[in-house]
Amino acid sequence: MSGKDNGRGADAPPGGSSPAPGGSSLTDALREAERILATAGIATPRADAELLAGHLMGLGRAEVRAAEILGRAAPANLMDLVDERARRIPLQHLTGRAPFRGVDLAVGPGVFVPRPETESVAQVAIDEANRLVAAGRQPLVVDLCTGSGAIALAVAAEVPAARVHAVEVDPLAHAWAERNAREHARSPVTLHLADARSALAELDGQVDVVVSNPPYVPPDAVPVDPEVRDHDPRIALYGGGVDGLDVPRGVVLAAARLLAPGGLLVMEHADVQAEAVRRLATASGAFTEVSTRADLGGRDRMVVARRASEVPSTPTDPVTAVDRDVRGCAAPDDPDVAHSPS
Ligand SMILES: C[S@@+](CC[C@H](N)C(=O)[O-])C[C@H]1O[C@@H](n2cnc3c(N)ncnc32)[C@H](O)[C@@H]1O
């Protein structure tokens, strides 16, 4: 049966669902939801079905499974949400929430959905902040390009002694970050609506950790997944310039300005960009110990560098110094870039 002749309208999802029969069991509804989502190309159909049911029932996934065993009925409207998910609306837009490390974030249209891979980036910043706390310091941490506030709020939650600032240029995303900061007011973060490249001049030379997951997708690497291509804001995906690294270059220069000598920069990138990003950090002349680190999946996904104490009087501008090298580093059809950030 085609999407058009199933009586559910031209935009019905592939494998279209039947309306939830009144009183259908949770087990039957989840089985049907899984079938529909698999047909629609969702990579984790069972998990998505359980999470949608859990969202409607106010339960976690383990509790949904327990509810199945107890023979509970499917929640009303489950199939409506399944249909939306089959149209590749992001799961997190349907539930309105995204977990990031221990923080439960509000997300929706207008803000980038935080990715699990970025948790590894946050880990490096948290480890460094904790190291400073153990040495008797109260670390100053800045999250550039904060989006929902994910990294900043995770640092604030996990390193309560840290003072945390977060910068976001897009008013819509900033509004989501404000909402999340209000929801997690016990882990305070100071938010700034500003361009990361010029923000926080008042903190120049004082910051201990600059952490960032900036946009870095090249202009010709259109994301494959509809959830990313059609729902993550363009400003959150595309980094600018032919290589997607204009904003990351600006973040590196901002970190060189903000960090105190010995301060740490950690910034996410696509794995194909590892060498180019190392080169632009090195070319700035402001960093030592420039290295690439892997995420939990073992892929090169972040640059880590320490602010040098001595900086050349005329540091090399990384925009021009490495432009030739990073061009073409991210092939348009590279799957890592096509799905990124994260
Ligand atoms: C890939 S998203 C990451 C969001 C968040 N850090 C996370 O990991 O979920 C990049 C974010 O950077 C913001 N952004 C883009 N250009 C920026 C700039 N020049 N200054 C500050 N924020 C910027 C986007 O609006 C978006 O929210």
What does this protein structure show overall?
By secondary structure, the protein is an alpha/beta fold. The protein has two domains: about 60 residues; about 240 residues, Vaccinia Virus protein VP39 (Rossmann fold), CATH 3.40.50.150. Helices cover about 40% and strands about 15% of the residues. It has 15 helices and nine strands. The strands form two sheets. A seven-stranded mixed beta sheet has the order 5-4-3-6-7-9-8, with helices on both faces. Strand 1 and strand 2 form a beta hairpin. Helix 1 packs parallel to helix 4. Bound molecules: S-adenosylmethionine.
Keywords:
alpha/beta, Rossmann fold, 2 domains, 7-stranded mixed beta sheet, two-stranded antiparallel ribbon, disordered N terminus, disordered C terminus, binds S-adenosylmethionine
SSE layout and pairings?
Layout: H1 26-39, H2 45-57, H3 61-69, H4 78-86, H5 91-95, E1 97-100, E2 103-106, H6 118-134, E3 140-144, H7 150-158, E4 163-168, H8 171-183, E5 190-193, E6 207-212, H9 226-231, H10 234-237, H11 246-258, E7 259-268, H12 274-283, E8 287-294, E9 300-307, H13 318-321, H14 323-326, H15 335-339
Parallel strand pairs: 3-4, 3-6, 4-5, 6-7
Antiparallel strand pairs: 1-2, 7-9, 8-9
Helix pairs in contact: 1-2, 1-4, 2-3, 2-4, 6-7
The structure holds S-adenosylmethionine.
